[in-house]
User: Fold UPF0386 protein C5F48_23520 from Cereibacter changlensis JA139.
Amino acid sequence: MNISKNEQRALHVLALGGRILHERENGPKITSVTCVTREGMILADFDMTIFNKLRRKRLVESRSGGPYQISKRGRLSVRAQLDNQGA
Assistant:
């Protein structure tokens, strides 16, 4: 499966415990999304196009209307990256 660099970055944040917070105006359509790390930082280059690609590929999922999290398929698709917190 082809996953772009920005999609891969978002999946890595989600695999480490992050979430995608979504907002809806009137109706079921999602109008804005924010990718938040487990520490509370916001991923700057995350937007609706990346979110829609991840959702279309079924790499993220929402349960009971809660925040979107990485799915099992997403965990299997994410590539290993060095965690740059220690160096």
Notes: The first strand starts at residue 19 and ends at 24. The CA atoms of residues 21 and 67 lie 5 Å apart.
